[in-house]
Write a structure and sequence with these properties.
alpha/beta, 5-stranded parallel sheet, 9 helices, elongated
């Protein structure tokens, strides 16, 4: 576990006092924090592989929080986003939520409210990263299948019996059974339902025989 990237809370706010206050608060509960005074500096300095969450003011000079939000996916930054808003910025914050932000905190907010929502965001990001790792593992397993094993894979997840797959491929049922056993072992699938879930994760669900 020591090689796992550490989660970071990225605080983006043009107010130095707010940045310092948020950094102190979050670090007081043993969280890792990086601060940025502009959205552009955050976008330029945040790696794609970063894990954690983003705490961003919705209204800032230059690039606003909303404008920065539209660039996150383009830059392959998928961490949960928490918007901070003043009373006059609530409509903007709601707009941010409709575009995928986790939530918004309206100033002034309590320290505990902030800590609670940040912890929720970190749990959500952990789940996201775990799912991405699982899909990566499934892709690696699928890449090791032979062409024939992939054809059998397609038939199995389409719900065809071994004989039906054999008839479609023009081979005998025993050969299909052998390919199926090898395919299940390579995919590390313990059941048909697991294999179907893998197929969905890989985006391979389609009509059998379709290229």
């Amino acid at each position: 576990m020591s090689n796992q990237p550490k989660q970071i809370i990225f605080v983006v706010d043009d107010d130095a006092d707010v940045r310092d206050s948020l950094k102190w608060l979050l670090e007081s509960v043993d969280l890792n924090v990086r601060v940025f005074e502009t959205a552009q500096r955050f976008l330029d300095g945040c790696p794609e592989s970063a894990q954690g969450c983003i705490l961003m003011d919705v209204r800032m000079p230059g690039m606003s929080g909303l404008s920065a939000q539209t660039q996150l996916a383009e830059r392959r930054i998928y961490m949960p986003l928490i918007m901070i808003s003043g009373h006059a910025d609530v409509d903007m914050a709601v707009s941010a939520m409709t575009q995928g932000a986790l939530t918004f905190l309206q100033k002034p907010f309590s320290d505990q409210a902030l800590i609670d929502i940040v912890q929720q965001a970190l749990l959500q990001d952990s789940a996201r990263c775990h799912q991405a790792e699982l899909i990566s593992d499934v892709r690696a397993c699928y890449a090791n299948l032979t062409k024939r094993e992939r054809q059998v894979f397609d038939g199995v997840v389409a719900g065809l019996a071994n004989q039906e797959v054999a008839d479609h491929l023009g081979i005998n049922r025993k050969t299909v059974e052998g390919h199926r056993a090898n395919m299940m072992a390579k995919m590390q699938a313990g059941s048909l339902s697991e294999l179907i879930q893998m197929s969905v994760a890989l985006g391979l669900v389609k009509s059998y025989g379709q290229n």
